[in-house]
User: Fold these one by one.
Assistant:
Number 1:
Amino acid sequence: MLEKLKLDRQLSQEEYERRLLLGQLQLRELAFQLYSRKRSLVAVYEGWDAAGKGGNIRRVTEKLDPRGYEVLSIAAPAGEDKTHHYLYRFWRRLKPPDEKQVMIFDRSWYGRVLVERVEGFCSEAAWKRAFREINDFERQLTEAGTIVAKFWINISKAEQLRRFEQRADVSYKRWKLTDEDWRNREKWDQYSEAVEDMLLKTSTLTAPWTVVEGDFKWWARVKCVETLVKTVSKHLDYKPSAPVK
């Protein structure tokens, strides 16, 4: 599935700025509709190291009312979270729609079938069982009225190396590059296999995956924003207006 992606898709700066702004304004209008209707959107971001998840999320939230969204950056479980089922730390972070209408997970429960699988942090039986558990979890969310959107941002191995080297050369970006990033890169093929399994086994009618061509960041940002607009519009049966020129 990943090998068939055309990762060289690009946009001109003019088209990027026009489509991004339009999508952001439409998304802001849709976020108000979520608030009015007491509905929630849960957006999940997964992708390779240096795929641009953070920059993508910033463009999604740039025009939103800050009172209505929350971004959750997920790391390894610690403290009380380690004593519970791995889905517990995600359940307890979800907010009712009268508090937050848009919840964005920068990495998510899919760590069980990605990093935990590849690095051996859980048993084979556990990560295989997780496919069913995750599908059940997301089904419960959607049956309760939550809109679920999931993005895998895909970049080529060569592009990842270019971004790693750029981070190493730029002082204010150097903090983003860790030894763990290099170790994960050495297991590229194992992670690719895990991603393929994840996309195949957890893309459902109510919570499908959107695979994003990420070598060109402008394209990836616009695709995610426009996908969110399309997804929320469909679920709410509401067409956002175009901004006044």
Number 2:
Amino acid sequence: MRINIINDCTGLEDSKVESWKSYIDKLAESFESRGYASDIPLKVLESAYATLTFIGEDEIRELNNEQRGIDKPTDVLSFPILDMKNGKLIDKDSEIDFELDEDGNKVLNLGDIIINPDTAYENADKYGHSIEREVSFLTAHSLLHLVGYDHVEKTDESVMIKAQKQMMNDIGLALEDEACEVTDHMDDNIAYPAGSIAKHCGYVSILGRPNVGKSTFINYITGMKVAIVSHKPQTTRTNIRSIYNSDDSQIIFTDTPGVHNPSNKLGKIMVGNSFASAKNADAILFIVDGRFPEPGAVEKKLLDLCRENNKKVVLAVNKSDDVSKESLLPLISAYSELYDYVDIVPVSAKTGDNIDVLLKILEGLLPEGPRLFDSEYMTDQSERMIAAELIREQILHFTDQEIPHGTAVEIDSFEDKYKEGAADEYDRECVVIKATIICEKDSHKAIIIGKGGKMIKRIGTSARINIERLLGCKVYLELFVKVREDWKNNDTLLRSYGFRSEDDN
């Protein structure tokens, strides 16, 4: 089936809607493959569609009052076409009314979904998750409504909640506790994808101060550039989930922003997200820099957090390739006095030394259960998100002092151009990307652009090469620069650029 998307909301940029489309398309695939509309034949469901329309607060309030007699805005409304109950037709003998598409083929209209993005943003802030997750959840919730799932009766509600969690898990946007709950209640009657079985599966949060090699480790185990790497601290700003699969295990790593003393709202969000990730994880991978002579205040603070939450911790002493093994012994001894670790492993995230040993130890700490993500998945980051980070990486690389951490990158458009007779969505001829670099001062803008535009051309060229490696096709990249003073302390701008707390508290 497919979901047709219409943007009728003034002020909602089409580029933002486009960034949600990949998740919405995956929801449609999940809905179809899991058989939630069991009374609709598969061939019919394959050509079925629903329409998702984004409208403004005033419009949805009027519609809510007209249809439900409630004179206030809401987040989502759904209008089913078929008379169904939990995916089954109430009247088995009733004929399904089909429409004809432009080629004269019969297609089934499941109904309409109406979402108000203003309320969706409020919900995302309230519950501490991303707008992508909120819009996807509202879409999943409404798709189920279209085929008769409901939450009025307690028994019906439990069925619907389970289905919602399964769909969110399928697209990689389940909250960590939701993903575990889906695993605990897996249905024997549901056919799970090939390769879904694993002996151990769970979440490992990576903690450490800035610039100790957390992102380098993630990039090494995934074999691709998922997280950006820089010699400058505080490179990672959001929790990046990366997935490591072995023959019988799956580890979902959360690469957290380095813990530091925040000086603005952005910094507070970064540190808060690191702590929230640690509290929800099955185990902690604590990475420290082997070149430091002793544990610092940051490391002691993180270990106190782990102790408070009774966490299983594996200590990885990184950058072992830069120091002698003899010099590591006093440092390991000092750390041993601070915590009762499951194990301590000297590693090099750059060369891969001892990484296989580390992964085996972590696998043994995870609960038994099937994979939470398809074994082909390597990250929950979309191509758009990684592209934005690869652009920011080059800003970090080519500029100095306070400029790098006063910048953000927003993808304005991400357009796939397909080859003639393309076999699938990855058979692309090229991708056209337009992105805006956000900085805090006019003087920063001048430095980023450079004399005669040389600096921004250098940033763009290097970023384009890395994005082409990621996407496996030609990339046309166009960069713009805008000044947004003190954006790191502006709640509205932080939310717009994708920075929000992951802690529900």
Number 3:
Amino acid sequence: MKDVKHHRAILQSIAYKAMLEHGLLPDFSAEALAELEELQLPVSIKVAPVETHSDIRDMRNLLWASIDNNNSRDLDQLSVAEPISESKVRIMVAIADVDSLVKEGSAIGEHARHNTTSVYTAAMIFPMLPEIISTDLTSLNPNEERLALVIEMEVDADGSLLDSRIFRAMVCNRAKLAYNSIAAWLEGNGIVPEAVSSIPGLAENLRVQDQTAQNLKKLRHVHGALSLETIEAKPVFDGDQIRSLEIEEKNRAREIIEDFMIAANGVTARYLSASGFPSIRRVVRIPKRWDRIVEIAGEYKFSLPEIPDSKALEEFLVKQKAADPIRFPDLSLTIVKLLGAGEYVAEPPDGDIPGHFGLAVKDYAHSTAPNRRYPDLLTQRLLKAALEGKTVPYSKDELDVLATHCTEAEDSVKKVERRVEKSAAALLLESRIGERFDAIVTGASEKGTWVRLLTIPVEGKLVNGFEGLDVGERLRVQLTDTNVEQGFIDFKKISSPRHK
């Protein structure tokens, strides 16, 4: 009898090798581990002596809560709402003060600088910072007093930002909440989670946060933010074996965090510029293949202008989502591929770089996840220097180099994550060779043509019958081969693209 292959162990081995192949560090150096051993927590992080720091506010009494994935342990942000009047709300976002513990030039800091982000693969996580830091010492864990940077925003009923402030504070997380259970309650499909009902006032506070987030989102979409819904599938394990691929769907709780973080990132970028500081911005430039986007819209009898226009594209997306919600993620995926990838760019205080096309925002500096993303830690150092009236800790040239490095490393990280996802999908499909599926073309270039199945969220290469196909076209394919070690899933075309 054949030995049962343990999927998790196979994927862990593949992930480790992929990290090395792409120039990433899967392990912390001996120097970083030695630093961790010697790490003595500053008193300011351990016990909260607010009285000795005139620039640190005591905000431990507020109804702060975190909303994240069920299994998240590196909690970077908390949020809380305070109604100001019938139409105005004060939203506060607290960001973990990671810089207080992870110093520039330290071995731990150099590891973070090299990888630039935590790497989340199907079978294991390669954290940007040692877990004792990112999931304990700086994580905004429940009932722990922590230093944070607070971004305060006054928001009107129409979603417009009236005023904003940034300051340091001591905070305490009252409740660790999970997206799905909070969303089910907010959307009327579930009861109030006990973590909410057990804390007086928290349920009402979350409803205010939800309404404010929806107002922020509506205004962004008026300005042309894109309503995209791509399918992201994560392997679900039963013990050490993959049982299925689960799709993560957008919901009201995710939107609270998403919309607050977009707003907070805008405030951060503008604050640094107003302080005469450079920043690292996240940009998505003019779409590289707008002509193909126009062509696809035309196939749906919708006319887009020849010059890229996010408002017109958003109008098309909203119309198609209403017309065919089941197939909308496939259209979204097509548009995402044609928009092109985002990148990090260093922006001088008086600069005028392009904004984020997909979010319809001009000012966007990653700042809300310093435990798991290096650009956010850089931004935090810039922010703290600006708040304290210190000189800029990085020159524009240094930031240019770091921005390029962060873009390149992020690309490598995505390749590792995709590689393991593909191997996981190959494990799931290896017993189904010969089966036929409906698919959509997701990539077409000299390197090859890729398709995604419509019934199972899996992408693979079209090795036969790809001539003349382009992104967004649908067809019938047959699974011809899988290679778990290489992460290859091969298909051949069975029938021509079908009409939409």
